[in-house]
Amino acid sequence: MRAQAKQVRHEEEEESAFVSMTDMTVGFLFIIMILLAFFASQMRDPGSVSRTEFDAVVAQRDSFEQERDAFEQESLAWRRIAETRAHRIAELEALLAQLRRERDALAAEVKRLEIQRDELEVSLRSSEQEIERLLKLISELEAEINDRDARIEELQRQLAELQKVDPLEAYLAQVAQVRKQVLVRLRDAIRADFPDLQVELSEESDALRFQGEGLFASGRSNLASDKADIVSRLALRLDEVLPCFTLGEASQFDGACNPGFVMIEAVQIEGHTDNVGSDQLNRNLSAARANSTFFAMTGAAEGVMQHLNLKRQPVLSVAAYGPDRPVTTNDTPEGRATNRRIDLRFIMVTPQDTDGIEVIRQALEAVGGQP
User: Which of 33, 223, 269, 305 shows the greatest Cβ crowding within 10 Å of its Cβ?
Assistant: First the structure.
């Protein structure tokens, strides 16, 4: 742009010089004409000029004037061209200044962007390092997650194994629950009939316990006359319960009263004593008390002996333990009274495997008329 401007100025200077020389030439010619006229006047009479000379001088003057006008017109044209060029030069210089300002602004913006780029590069390197650290951390955490998943899967597998219902365990648990329900039913029925009688469930919920002083006089095996009704009522209540859980002609099994297909193996009338007296005496006394209770019950409810277990044996039986199985201390009168007792223990059929469960099911369905 500067080279172009210099060229334009140079051309304008040449045009100005040309115009000046043209003016000088015209003036010089005019002076020559005056000198010629002067010399002509010296050679002739100053008061007279020949027509020819005059016309020649006038023609020459007119020619000079025409040339001068032509030069002036040409000079005016060049001046206009110069003015146009000067105006264009001014416009171009203004545009050049503007472009320089814009260039400077763009250069400043480039500088700012370069600084920002450098800052971003630094930040990017820092971010890349942070990203690398985070990726490493993520990888470590994913490894830990995979480890946890593996442990969770193993624990879930173990839990699933533990939660699998063992048919035999489930059946045995149901047997224990049904036995407790039967004992509670009998206890509540006896309590309702004899509110003052001390009868409780054993700690294992497998027997009803009647305190000995309540049924027998001290040292005696015969039922007290006013307690015979208790044993008779117990026999009747037992006769009501057993049909659903036993075989035989008296069996009344159905799915409503025994949905778990539970069977009673034995109902033992157990005689117990305290530790006062000889061992032989106490054993004989406990057996005598158990037998007295057994005969009283079978006499009150003859059908109770028709309830059979899986081996087709009567479920009602007797056992005598003397002082061998105390439930409390014998050091106090109260403790000894508690140990002198009759237990009605329920022993359930407990199969060793699932095949045994099926045998029980089939036996009960057979007497119950189940398909």
Answer: 269
- Gap between the Cα atoms of 252 and 244, Å rounded: 5
Phi, psi dihedral angles at 308 (to 5 degrees): -110, 155
pLDDT tens-digit readout, 77-106: 888 888 888 888 888 888 888 988 988 899
Strand partners, 247: 308
Of 183, 146, 167, 111, the C-alpha closest to 345 is 183
- Which contacts qualify for 213-222: CB closer than 8 Å, 24 or more apart? 213/337, 213/340, 215/289, 215/293, 215/342, 216/289, 216/292, 216/340, 218/340, 219/285, 221/285, 221/288, 221/289, 221/291, 221/292, 222/292
Q: Output phi, psi for 186, to 5 deg.
A: -65, -45
Cβ-count burial 86-117 (b if 16+ within 10 Å, e if not): eeebeebeeebeeeeeeeeeeeeeeeeeeeee
What radius of gyration do the chain's Cα atoms show?
70
DSSP-assigned beta bridge partners for residue 200: 209
Question: Which secondary structure element, helix H or strand E, spans residue 7, and what is its range?
Answer: helix 2-43
Q: What is the pLDDT of residues 153-176, one digit of tens each?
A: 888 777 776 667 688 999 999 999
Contact 218, 185 (CB under 8 A): no
DSSP string across 211-228:
EHHHHB-TT--SBPTTTH
Pairwise CA distance, residues 216 & 208, whole Å: 16
Q: How does 291-330 read in b/e, with b if 16+ C-beta sit within 10 Å?
A: ebbbebbeebbeebbbbbbbeeebbbbbebbbbeebeeeb
Q: What does the DSSP assignment read for 129-196? A: HHHHHHHHHHHHHHHHHHHHHHHHHHHHHHHHHHHS--HHHHHHHHHHHHHHHHHHHHHHHHHHH-TT
The structure tokens 């193996």 sit at 265
Q: Taking residues 307-327, what's their average pLDDT?
A: 95
- Please, what's the largest Cα pairwise distance for the chain? 209
What tokens does 35 get?
């000198």
State how far Cα 133 lies from the chain centre: 26
Quick one: which of 367, 337, 366, 361 has its CA closest to 349? Answer: 361
3-state secondary structure at position 356? helix
